[in-house]
User: Which sequence fits this backbone?
Protein backbone atom coordinates (compact mmCIF):
# COMPACT_ATOMS: atom_id res chain seq x y z
CA UNK A 1 0.00 0.00 0.00
CA UNK A 2 1.43 3.35 -1.05
CA UNK A 3 1.52 5.95 1.69
CA UNK A 4 2.63 8.92 -0.41
CA UNK A 5 -0.40 9.16 -2.70
CA UNK A 6 1.45 7.48 -5.57
CA UNK A 7 -0.73 5.40 -7.86
CA UNK A 8 0.42 2.63 -10.19
CA UNK A 9 -1.13 2.73 -13.68
CA UNK A 10 -1.54 -0.43 -15.75
CA UNK A 11 -3.00 -1.12 -19.17
CA UNK A 12 -6.34 -2.75 -19.87
CA UNK A 13 -8.86 -0.06 -18.96
CA UNK A 14 -12.23 -1.45 -17.98
CA UNK A 15 -11.03 -5.07 -18.34
CA UNK A 16 -7.79 -4.64 -16.37
CA UNK A 17 -9.32 -6.17 -13.24
CA UNK A 18 -9.36 -10.00 -13.26
CA UNK A 19 -12.67 -11.57 -14.22
CA UNK A 20 -13.96 -8.77 -16.43
CA UNK A 21 -14.51 -9.28 -20.17
CA UNK A 22 -15.61 -6.88 -22.90
CA UNK A 23 -16.44 -6.81 -26.58
CA UNK A 24 -17.38 -4.23 -29.20
CA UNK A 25 -19.23 -4.61 -32.51
CA UNK A 26 -20.84 -2.52 -35.23
CA UNK A 27 -24.56 -3.26 -35.30
CA UNK A 28 -25.80 -0.53 -37.62
CA UNK A 29 -26.73 2.38 -35.35
CA UNK A 30 -23.93 4.46 -36.84
CA UNK A 31 -23.59 4.64 -40.64
CA UNK A 32 -21.63 1.81 -42.22
CA UNK A 33 -19.23 4.25 -43.85
CA UNK A 34 -17.95 5.33 -40.42
CA UNK A 35 -16.69 1.79 -39.87
CA UNK A 36 -16.93 2.32 -36.12
CA UNK A 37 -18.25 -0.01 -33.45
CA UNK A 38 -21.44 1.30 -31.88
CA UNK A 39 -22.17 -1.34 -29.25
CA UNK A 40 -20.11 -2.47 -26.25
CA UNK A 41 -20.74 -5.35 -23.88
CA UNK A 42 -19.02 -5.75 -20.52
CA UNK A 43 -19.46 -8.57 -18.03
CA UNK A 44 -18.01 -10.21 -14.96
CA UNK A 45 -17.48 -13.94 -15.34
CA UNK A 46 -18.64 -14.43 -11.76
CA UNK A 47 -20.82 -12.81 -9.12
CA UNK A 48 -20.50 -9.06 -8.73
CA UNK A 49 -22.12 -6.16 -6.91
CA UNK A 50 -22.84 -2.84 -8.56
CA UNK A 51 -23.19 0.83 -7.66
CA UNK A 52 -24.34 3.64 -9.91
CA UNK A 53 -25.22 7.32 -10.12
CA UNK A 54 -27.51 8.79 -12.76
CA UNK A 55 -28.41 12.14 -14.29
CA UNK A 56 -30.34 14.58 -12.13
CA UNK A 57 -32.17 15.89 -15.20
CA UNK A 58 -35.94 15.54 -14.68
CA UNK A 59 -36.13 14.10 -18.20
CA UNK A 60 -34.45 10.72 -17.97
CA UNK A 61 -33.75 8.38 -20.87
CA UNK A 62 -35.26 4.90 -20.96
CA UNK A 63 -31.97 3.11 -20.18
CA UNK A 64 -31.50 5.30 -17.08
CA UNK A 65 -34.94 4.32 -15.80
CA UNK A 66 -34.39 0.64 -16.51
CA UNK A 67 -30.88 0.58 -15.02
CA UNK A 68 -32.04 2.40 -11.87
CA UNK A 69 -34.63 -0.34 -11.35
CA UNK A 70 -32.17 -3.15 -12.05
CA UNK A 71 -29.59 -1.64 -9.69
CA UNK A 72 -31.53 -3.10 -6.74
CA UNK A 73 -30.49 -6.60 -7.87
CA UNK A 74 -27.92 -8.17 -5.55
CA UNK A 75 -25.80 -9.89 -8.22
CA UNK A 76 -25.28 -7.66 -11.27
CA UNK A 77 -23.10 -9.21 -13.96
CA UNK A 78 -23.16 -7.14 -17.15
CA UNK A 79 -23.53 -3.74 -18.80
CA UNK A 80 -24.54 -3.20 -22.42
CA UNK A 81 -23.94 0.19 -24.03
CA UNK A 82 -24.80 1.64 -27.41
CA UNK A 83 -23.71 4.91 -29.02
CA UNK A 84 -25.39 6.89 -31.78
CA UNK A 85 -28.86 6.82 -30.21
CA UNK A 86 -29.84 8.04 -26.73
CA UNK A 87 -33.15 6.15 -26.53
CA UNK A 88 -34.50 9.25 -24.74
CA UNK A 89 -37.99 10.75 -25.15
CA UNK A 90 -39.07 7.56 -26.93
CA UNK A 91 -42.07 6.72 -24.74
CA UNK A 92 -43.09 3.23 -23.65
CA UNK A 93 -41.39 1.75 -26.73
CA UNK A 94 -38.10 3.17 -25.45
CA UNK A 95 -38.55 1.46 -22.08
CA UNK A 96 -39.36 -1.82 -23.79
CA UNK A 97 -36.32 -1.48 -26.06
CA UNK A 98 -34.03 -0.88 -23.08
CA UNK A 99 -35.49 -3.97 -21.41
CA UNK A 100 -35.01 -5.95 -24.62
CA UNK A 101 -31.34 -4.97 -24.64
CA UNK A 102 -30.97 -6.35 -21.11
CA UNK A 103 -32.98 -9.43 -22.04
CA UNK A 104 -30.78 -10.09 -25.09
CA UNK A 105 -27.68 -9.98 -22.92
CA UNK A 106 -29.36 -12.35 -20.48
CA UNK A 107 -30.14 -14.84 -23.24
CA UNK A 108 -26.59 -14.64 -24.61
CA UNK A 109 -24.81 -14.97 -21.25
CA UNK A 110 -27.29 -17.13 -19.33
CA UNK A 111 -28.24 -14.30 -16.97
CA UNK A 112 -31.49 -12.86 -15.71
CA UNK A 113 -32.64 -9.66 -17.37
CA UNK A 114 -32.32 -7.76 -14.08
CA UNK A 115 -28.65 -8.74 -13.80
CA UNK A 116 -27.90 -6.42 -16.73
CA UNK A 117 -27.57 -2.63 -16.78
CA UNK A 118 -28.18 -0.62 -19.94
CA UNK A 119 -26.61 2.61 -21.21
CA UNK A 120 -27.27 4.60 -24.38
CA UNK A 121 -25.78 7.80 -25.80
CA UNK A 122 -26.47 9.80 -28.93
CA UNK A 123 -29.34 11.73 -30.48
CA UNK A 124 -32.50 12.25 -28.43
CA UNK A 125 -35.97 11.36 -29.71
CA UNK A 126 -35.04 8.69 -32.25
CA UNK A 127 -36.32 5.10 -31.84
CA UNK A 128 -33.65 2.46 -31.36
CA UNK A 129 -33.12 -0.04 -34.18
CA UNK A 130 -33.71 -2.72 -31.58
CA UNK A 131 -33.57 -5.77 -33.87
CA UNK A 132 -30.13 -4.74 -35.13
CA UNK A 133 -28.99 -4.13 -31.56
CA UNK A 134 -30.21 -7.54 -30.44
CA UNK A 135 -28.26 -9.13 -33.29
CA UNK A 136 -25.21 -7.10 -32.26
CA UNK A 137 -25.50 -8.21 -28.65
CA UNK A 138 -25.58 -11.87 -29.68
CA UNK A 139 -22.47 -11.31 -31.79
CA UNK A 140 -20.65 -9.38 -29.03
CA UNK A 141 -21.30 -12.18 -26.55
CA UNK A 142 -19.28 -14.57 -28.72
CA UNK A 143 -16.17 -12.37 -28.77
CA UNK A 144 -15.92 -11.28 -25.14
CA UNK A 145 -12.31 -10.99 -24.07
CA UNK A 146 -10.13 -9.73 -21.23
CA UNK A 147 -8.40 -7.64 -23.92
CA UNK A 148 -11.66 -6.03 -25.02
CA UNK A 149 -11.45 -2.89 -22.92
CA UNK A 150 -9.92 -0.65 -25.58
CA UNK A 151 -12.54 -1.62 -28.16
CA UNK A 152 -15.35 -1.02 -25.68
CA UNK A 153 -14.01 2.46 -24.89
CA UNK A 154 -14.02 3.25 -28.62
CA UNK A 155 -17.51 1.85 -29.18
CA UNK A 156 -19.17 4.27 -26.74
CA UNK A 157 -17.65 7.37 -28.37
CA UNK A 158 -19.94 9.89 -30.08
CA UNK A 159 -18.28 13.25 -30.76
CA UNK A 160 -15.28 12.22 -28.65
CA UNK A 161 -11.94 12.44 -30.44
CA UNK A 162 -10.18 9.76 -28.38
CA UNK A 163 -11.15 6.81 -26.16
CA UNK A 164 -10.99 7.57 -22.45
CA UNK A 165 -9.74 4.74 -20.27
CA UNK A 166 -7.62 4.27 -17.19
CA UNK A 167 -6.53 1.52 -14.77
CA UNK A 168 -4.48 1.17 -11.58
CA UNK A 169 -3.15 -1.79 -9.63
CA UNK A 170 -2.53 -1.24 -5.93
CA UNK A 171 -1.53 -3.24 -2.86
CA UNK A 172 -3.46 -3.38 0.41
CA UNK A 173 -1.90 -3.53 3.86
CA UNK A 174 -2.16 -7.34 4.06
CA UNK A 175 -0.45 -7.83 0.69
CA UNK A 176 -3.59 -8.34 -1.39
CA UNK A 177 -3.41 -6.71 -4.80
CA UNK A 178 -6.48 -5.04 -6.27
CA UNK A 179 -7.11 -3.50 -9.67
CA UNK A 180 -9.46 -0.70 -10.61
CA UNK A 181 -10.11 0.26 -14.22
CA UNK A 182 -12.56 2.33 -16.16
CA UNK A 183 -13.69 3.97 -19.36
CA UNK A 184 -15.75 7.07 -20.12
CA UNK A 185 -17.25 9.03 -22.98
CA UNK A 186 -18.31 12.63 -23.21
CA UNK A 187 -17.46 15.75 -25.17
CA UNK A 188 -20.57 17.95 -25.40
CA UNK A 189 -23.69 18.64 -23.28
CA UNK A 190 -21.42 18.57 -20.23
CA UNK A 191 -22.47 20.20 -16.96
CA UNK A 192 -22.10 19.39 -13.23
CA UNK A 193 -24.56 17.02 -11.51
CA UNK A 194 -23.70 14.40 -14.09
CA UNK A 195 -22.92 15.59 -17.56
CA UNK A 196 -23.62 14.01 -20.97
CA UNK A 197 -21.35 11.22 -20.18
CA UNK A 198 -21.12 7.55 -19.52
CA UNK A 199 -18.49 5.94 -17.34
CA UNK A 200 -18.08 2.28 -16.40
CA UNK A 201 -15.60 1.29 -13.70
CA UNK A 202 -14.62 -2.18 -12.57
CA UNK A 203 -12.65 -3.55 -9.65
CA UNK A 204 -11.84 -6.86 -8.03
CA UNK A 205 -11.98 -5.66 -4.41
CA UNK A 206 -14.28 -7.55 -2.04
CA UNK A 207 -16.83 -5.02 -0.81
CA UNK A 208 -20.43 -4.78 0.31
CA UNK A 209 -22.88 -3.31 -2.21
CA UNK A 210 -23.91 -0.54 0.20
CA UNK A 211 -20.32 0.52 0.84
CA UNK A 212 -19.53 0.39 -2.88
CA UNK A 213 -22.39 2.82 -3.51
CA UNK A 214 -21.12 5.17 -0.82
CA UNK A 215 -17.62 5.10 -2.26
CA UNK A 216 -18.89 5.85 -5.76
CA UNK A 217 -20.99 8.79 -4.60
CA UNK A 218 -17.93 10.31 -2.93
CA UNK A 219 -15.82 9.79 -6.04
CA UNK A 220 -18.44 11.20 -8.44
CA UNK A 221 -18.98 14.30 -6.31
CA UNK A 222 -15.32 15.33 -6.57
CA UNK A 223 -14.89 14.40 -10.23
CA UNK A 224 -17.76 14.01 -12.72
CA UNK A 225 -19.91 16.49 -10.78
CA UNK A 226 -17.23 19.16 -11.15
CA UNK A 227 -16.95 19.39 -14.91
CA UNK A 228 -18.68 21.64 -17.40
CA UNK A 229 -18.22 22.37 -21.08
CA UNK A 230 -21.43 24.12 -22.09
CA UNK A 231 -23.81 24.20 -19.14
CA UNK A 232 -26.20 21.62 -20.62
CA UNK A 233 -27.12 18.56 -18.57
CA UNK A 234 -27.94 15.36 -20.44
CA UNK A 235 -30.83 12.91 -20.11
CA UNK A 236 -28.58 9.83 -20.15
CA UNK A 237 -25.67 10.40 -17.77
CA UNK A 238 -24.63 7.27 -15.95
CA UNK A 239 -21.66 6.11 -13.88
CA UNK A 240 -21.52 2.42 -12.97
CA UNK A 241 -19.03 0.62 -10.74
CA UNK A 242 -18.88 -3.19 -10.66
CA UNK A 243 -16.92 -5.15 -8.04
CA UNK A 244 -16.42 -8.91 -8.30
CA UNK A 245 -14.29 -9.61 -5.21
CA UNK A 246 -11.61 -11.55 -7.10
CA UNK A 247 -8.86 -9.99 -4.95
CA UNK A 248 -10.09 -12.27 -2.18
CA UNK A 249 -10.07 -11.90 1.58
CA UNK A 250 -12.48 -10.03 3.84
CA UNK A 251 -14.63 -7.17 2.57
CA UNK A 252 -13.18 -3.70 2.82
CA UNK A 253 -14.68 -1.81 5.74
CA UNK A 254 -15.15 1.96 5.99
CA UNK A 255 -12.85 3.46 8.57
CA UNK A 256 -9.87 1.20 7.91
CA UNK A 257 -6.76 2.12 5.94
CA UNK A 258 -7.44 -0.33 3.12
CA UNK A 259 -10.88 1.11 2.43
CA UNK A 260 -9.35 4.59 2.46
CA UNK A 261 -6.77 3.48 -0.10
CA UNK A 262 -9.46 2.01 -2.34
CA UNK A 263 -11.44 5.25 -2.05
CA UNK A 264 -8.36 7.30 -2.90
CA UNK A 265 -7.70 5.13 -5.96
CA UNK A 266 -11.31 5.42 -7.09
CA UNK A 267 -11.22 9.20 -6.59
CA UNK A 268 -8.02 9.44 -8.61
CA UNK A 269 -9.44 7.34 -11.45
CA UNK A 270 -12.72 9.25 -11.72
CA UNK A 271 -10.93 12.59 -11.50
CA UNK A 272 -8.64 11.65 -14.36
CA UNK A 273 -11.52 10.40 -16.51
CA UNK A 274 -13.44 13.60 -15.77
CA UNK A 275 -10.48 15.74 -16.85
CA UNK A 276 -10.21 13.72 -20.08
CA UNK A 277 -13.85 14.50 -20.84
CA UNK A 278 -13.32 18.24 -20.40
CA UNK A 279 -10.05 18.26 -22.34
CA UNK A 280 -11.90 16.55 -25.19
CA UNK A 281 -14.79 19.03 -25.11
CA UNK A 282 -16.30 19.72 -28.52
CA UNK A 283 -14.07 22.16 -30.37
CA UNK A 284 -12.39 23.50 -27.22
CA UNK A 285 -8.98 25.14 -27.21
CA UNK A 286 -8.56 25.83 -23.47
CA UNK A 287 -8.77 23.65 -20.36
CA UNK A 288 -9.45 25.84 -17.33
CA UNK A 289 -9.53 25.00 -13.64
CA UNK A 290 -11.77 27.45 -11.77
CA UNK A 291 -10.85 27.35 -8.10
CA UNK A 292 -12.85 29.35 -5.56
CA UNK A 293 -11.55 29.70 -2.01
CA UNK A 294 -12.40 31.89 0.97
CA UNK A 295 -16.15 31.42 0.58
CA UNK A 296 -18.48 31.67 3.55
CA UNK A 297 -20.03 28.25 2.86
CA UNK A 298 -19.44 25.24 0.65
CA UNK A 299 -22.57 26.04 -1.34
CA UNK A 300 -21.38 29.62 -1.89
CA UNK A 301 -18.04 28.33 -3.19
CA UNK A 302 -19.85 25.96 -5.54
CA UNK A 303 -22.28 28.60 -6.81
CA UNK A 304 -19.45 31.04 -7.49
CA UNK A 305 -17.24 28.50 -9.27
CA UNK A 306 -20.07 27.16 -11.43
CA UNK A 307 -21.28 30.63 -12.42
CA UNK A 308 -17.83 31.56 -13.70
CA UNK A 309 -17.22 28.18 -15.35
CA UNK A 310 -20.53 28.34 -17.23
CA UNK A 311 -20.47 31.99 -18.27
CA UNK A 312 -20.60 32.21 -22.07
CA UNK A 313 -18.97 35.66 -21.97
CA UNK A 314 -16.12 34.46 -19.78
CA UNK A 315 -15.56 31.39 -21.96
CA UNK A 316 -15.53 33.51 -25.14
CA UNK A 317 -12.93 35.81 -23.59
CA UNK A 318 -10.76 32.82 -22.78
CA UNK A 319 -11.00 31.66 -26.37
CA UNK A 320 -9.73 35.08 -27.43
CA UNK A 321 -6.84 34.93 -24.97
CA UNK A 322 -8.37 37.86 -23.07
CA UNK A 323 -8.05 37.85 -19.24
CA UNK A 324 -11.28 39.84 -18.98
CA UNK A 325 -11.75 39.67 -15.22
CA UNK A 326 -14.70 42.05 -15.39
CA UNK A 327 -16.77 39.22 -16.83
CA UNK A 328 -15.64 36.96 -13.98
CA UNK A 329 -16.70 39.51 -11.37
CA UNK A 330 -20.01 39.92 -13.16
CA UNK A 331 -20.62 36.15 -13.01
CA UNK A 332 -19.76 36.11 -9.32
CA UNK A 333 -22.29 38.88 -8.75
CA UNK A 334 -25.21 36.93 -10.18
CA UNK A 335 -24.14 33.58 -8.72
CA UNK A 336 -26.17 34.27 -5.50
CA UNK A 337 -23.05 33.44 -3.43
CA UNK A 338 -22.37 35.74 -0.48
CA UNK A 339 -19.89 38.40 -1.64
CA UNK A 340 -18.18 41.61 -0.64
CA UNK A 341 -16.80 43.32 -3.72
CA UNK A 342 -13.87 44.86 -1.85
CA UNK A 343 -12.73 41.42 -0.62
CA UNK A 344 -12.44 39.71 -4.00
CA UNK A 345 -9.02 38.69 -5.34
CA UNK A 346 -8.56 36.94 -8.71
CA UNK A 347 -5.43 35.19 -9.98
CA UNK A 348 -4.44 33.68 -13.32
CA UNK A 349 -1.89 30.91 -12.68
CA UNK A 350 -0.82 32.75 -9.53
CA UNK A 351 -0.56 36.17 -11.20
CA UNK A 352 -2.88 38.58 -9.45
CA UNK A 353 -5.39 40.27 -11.77
CA UNK A 354 -7.79 41.69 -9.17
CA UNK A 355 -6.95 42.87 -5.66
CA UNK A 356 -9.74 43.93 -3.34
CA UNK A 357 -12.25 44.05 -6.18
CA UNK A 358 -10.11 46.34 -8.34
CA UNK A 359 -7.50 45.94 -11.08
CA UNK A 360 -4.07 44.91 -9.87
CA UNK A 361 -0.80 46.34 -11.13
CA UNK A 362 0.07 43.17 -13.07
CA UNK A 363 0.76 44.17 -16.70
CA UNK A 364 -2.00 43.11 -19.06
CA UNK A 365 0.43 41.36 -21.40
CA UNK A 366 1.54 39.06 -18.55
CA UNK A 367 -2.05 37.99 -17.90
CA UNK A 368 -2.65 37.54 -21.63
CA UNK A 369 0.32 35.17 -21.82
CA UNK A 370 -1.39 32.92 -19.27
CA UNK A 371 -4.83 32.94 -20.94
CA UNK A 372 -3.32 32.08 -24.31
CA UNK A 373 -2.02 28.78 -22.94
CA UNK A 374 -3.80 25.47 -23.52
CA UNK A 375 -4.27 24.98 -19.75
CA UNK A 376 -4.43 27.47 -16.90
CA UNK A 377 -6.04 28.05 -13.48
CA UNK A 378 -8.30 30.88 -12.39
CA UNK A 379 -8.19 31.26 -8.61
CA UNK A 380 -10.90 33.41 -7.04
CA UNK A 381 -10.54 34.24 -3.35
CA UNK A 382 -13.69 35.68 -1.77
CA UNK A 383 -12.19 36.56 1.63
CA UNK A 384 -15.26 35.59 3.65
CA UNK A 385 -14.46 32.17 5.08
CA UNK A 386 -12.64 28.88 4.52
CA UNK A 387 -14.90 27.01 2.08
CA UNK A 388 -13.55 26.08 -1.36
CA UNK A 389 -14.64 24.42 -4.58
CA UNK A 390 -13.13 23.60 -7.96
CA UNK A 391 -14.73 23.13 -11.39
CA UNK A 392 -13.01 22.01 -14.60
CA UNK A 393 -14.22 23.85 -17.68
CA UNK A 394 -13.30 25.08 -21.17
CA UNK A 395 -13.59 28.00 -23.55
CA UNK A 396 -16.23 28.46 -26.28
CA UNK A 397 -15.01 28.32 -29.87
CA UNK A 398 -16.47 28.71 -33.37
CA UNK A 399 -15.73 25.00 -33.81
CA UNK A 400 -18.06 24.22 -30.89
CA UNK A 401 -20.86 26.08 -32.67
CA UNK A 402 -20.12 24.28 -35.94
CA UNK A 403 -20.21 20.88 -34.28
CA UNK A 404 -23.52 21.63 -32.55
CA UNK A 405 -25.48 23.14 -35.44
CA UNK A 406 -26.92 19.67 -35.98
CA UNK A 407 -26.13 15.99 -35.72
Assistant:
Amino acid sequence: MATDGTFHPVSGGVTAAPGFLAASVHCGIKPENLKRADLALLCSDGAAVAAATFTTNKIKAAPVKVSAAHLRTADLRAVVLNSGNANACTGLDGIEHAKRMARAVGWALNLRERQVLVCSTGRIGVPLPIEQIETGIAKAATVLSSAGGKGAARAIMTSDTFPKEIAFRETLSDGRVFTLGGMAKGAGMINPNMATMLSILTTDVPIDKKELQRALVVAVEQSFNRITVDGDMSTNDTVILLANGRAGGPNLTPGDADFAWFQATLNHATRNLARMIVEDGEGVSRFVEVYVSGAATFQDARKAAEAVANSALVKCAWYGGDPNWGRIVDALGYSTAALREEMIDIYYNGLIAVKGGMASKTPLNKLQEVVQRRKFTVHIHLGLGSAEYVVYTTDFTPEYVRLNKGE
